Amino acid sequence: MSKVRAAISWAVTTAMLAGTAGIALSTSAGAATTVLAATVNVNIRSGPGTSNKILRTLQKGELVHGAGKVSGDWRPIAFDNTTAYVFAAYVTTAKTTTGPIIAGPAGTKKTTVNVNVRAKATLKSDIVKVLTKGAAVDVTGRASGAFSEVKVDGKVRWMYTAYLAKTSTPDPEPDSLPDIAGTFITTSLLAMRTSPDPNSSTLGDLQPNTTVGLTGKHEGSYSQIVHQGKVAWILSGYLKPTAQSGNITLPTSVGLLYVTASAVNVRADATADSGKLATLQKGAVLQSTGTSKNKFTQVIFAGKLAWVASEYLSATKPEESLGSSSLDKLQPTAKAFVPVIRENFPQIKTMYGWRASSAYSSDHPSGRALDIMIPSYKTNKALGDKIADFAITNAKKYKVKYVIWRQRSYTISRGTWVKMADRGSDTENHYDHVHVSFLS
Q1: Sheet holding 351-352, edge to edge
Q2: Which residues contact 95 (CB under 8 A, 6 or more apart)?
Q3: Given a cut of 90, is residue 428 above it in pLDDT?
Q4: Is the pTM of this model over 0.90?
Q5: DSSP strand E in 90-153: where?
Q6: Interval 8-49: pLDDT, tens
Q7: Extended beta strands in 353-405, E state
Q8: Is the dihedral of CA 365, 367, 369, 370 positive or negative?
């Protein structure tokens, strides 16, 4: 046989093998017999211990091949043609083995022959492309039978695992999730927050009876959790243990309390000379256990029990200051309009509300009027016009009774502007501010 004919024969045979079943495959996944499913998000590690490198995070419900029996707290699995480990308490024998298997890390591998790229993990699936020997291809680390999941031209595809190099260039290491120290079940509707602060943004809500993984990290009234690939903080006192709670114990909350003083100490015991654990500011959230002693209330703090002087706690959240006593003394309808103006008209820096007396009406002394001061009012009439129009247009929503601007008044029930008598100065004639009065 000539060299040319031999080369052609080799190429044809290779192409046929790349699309033909029945060849011998030598993969760790093929040798494993037990399929395991993750019960929570759990890290895959290079060795049996938390000090070993995290190779990948196995998401709840994802499948892997077992590679031996449990040893201590760790279960060996088949991963990237070798043995890796997961925390044994967080995997269980899979109820179904039909889904893709996590077989290795995501990264880039090279093809070892010319190989068909298929739409699905079956020989009956359409061939969407043929890659030549030595082509680089992105692998996701997921496998189904003899096929590996790959990304070709931006789409998820499949090709024979046997025709991919065993070693890969891994993707840049992703941010790994913290290790889970124990699993708990929520007993109430809870907000998942980005930090242990009631004012931080939320990542969604947890319904009652949701299983979450605790990392064992606590701060203030919050505990850190891992749930569906997210790291978040939730209130500590609304969790009950499961059989996999580890050595974590948490007190139970009977309700929330708020700090009412400007600075309050959290103490280790119910005495004023007990060790100080922290100092909290007004509005801080605490969880009560329902126990009181020596004029102190027991609270949950950093995952443990602590004490705060009862006189500085309230079940009602204290109102935040609007920045001045004049605004803080407003009635609720007028007070609610202050942040609305600040949000919609950031040019406004000064507003006045309550004052002890008024020569023309009782609205200011009763806390039902707001004066919105217009900066550079002599050349800034347009801004005042916009604010007056905003108050009139949204009168029903914000319970506006009437508006005064530039020596004119607009009563909502009347629906028209009316000229007012000259009271003297620009301030008295409302040229430098828009006056808004509210219904009670």
Answers
A1: 351-352, 369-373, 433-438, 400-404, 408-411, 417-419
A2: 37
A3: yes
A4: no
A5: 91-93, 101-102, 107-110, 115-118, 127-131, 136-144, 147-152
A6: 343 434 444 444 332 223 333 334 468 999 888 888 999 998
A7: 369-373, 400-404
A8: positive
Q: Place 175 in a pLDDT band, splitting at 50, 70 and 90.
A: low
Find the DSSP H helices in 228-372. 325-328, 332-344
In the chain, helix, strand, coil percent, each to 5?
Answer: 15, 40, 45
The set of residues, in sequence order, having a beta carbon less than 8 Å from that of 54 and lying 6+ positions away, is 43, 44, 45, 176
Element (H, E) at 14: helix 3-17
Q: Please, what is the angle between helix 332-344 and helix 381-393, to 10°?
A: 130
CA-wise closest residue to 249 among 186, 194, 184: 184
Contact between 82 and 93 under an 8 Å Cβ cutoff? The reply is no
Question: What's the rounded Cα separation, in Å, for the pair 296 and 336?
Answer: 35
Chain length of the chain: 440
Identify the three-state secondary structure at position 398.
helix
Structure tokens given for 394: 């949204």
Q: Which helix (H) or strand (E) holds 225?
A: strand 222-227
Tokens describing residue 333? 């309808």
Could you identify the residue written with the tokens 């209130």?
Answer: 235
| Residue 242 burial (C-beta neighbours within 10 Å; 0-12, 13-18, 19+) | middle
| Each residue's pLDDT tens digit, 122-163 | 999 999 999 999 999 999 899 998 899 999 988 899 999 999
Please tell me the distance from the alpha carbon of residue 260 to that of residue 272, in angstroms, as a whole number.
Answer: 18
333: left (phi over 0), alpha (psi -120 to 50) or beta: alpha
Question: Which run of H or of E encompasses 226?
Answer: strand 222-227
